[in-house]
Amino acid sequence: MKSVRSVRDKLRTGLAGLRPVPPAPESAPEPAPAPAPAPARQPVRSTPGRAPETVTAQETIRQVTQLRRRVEELESEVQENRRLNRRLAELTDVVQELLIPISQRDEDKLRERLEKYSESL
Q: Shortest CA distance to 59 belongs to which of 80, 34, 81, 42?
């Protein structure tokens, strides 16, 4: 039992020499701001036989913006193409209307249709 008493006595004397820990202040100082995170890189589908590429969020936004611009351009071109196709169909109809009276040698109908066409311009 002497060993237990000696250990206990050593602990008491050792603990007596310790200073109490001061309580934490109520308002802790604010931590320093964290550094800005590096741009996240997302894997991109790779081509067979090539290493996969990575793209940042900014690059993705830039690509989406470019694609939207290109889609707007294509839509505009499609509308222009439709307008030209309609005009071509109208001209084809006019030519057909003019050729039929010529083949039938009907001068009155030919003049009438030419006047009608001239007025539509």
A: 42
Helix (H, G, I), strand (E, B) or coil at 49: coil
Helix (H, G, I), strand (E, B) or coil at 20: coil
Residue 101 CB-density burial (10 A; 0-12 exposed, 13-18 middle, 19+ buried): middle
User: Cα–Cα distances in Å, from 45 out to 51, 60, 110?
Assistant: 9, 13, 64
Q: What is the mean pLDDT of residues 73-90?
A: 95
Question: Over 70: is that where the pLDDT of 2 sits?
Answer: no
The residues facing 55 across adjacent strands are 42
- For residue 28, which amino acid is it? A
φ and ψ at 41, to 5 degrees?
-110, 130
pLDDT at 18: 55
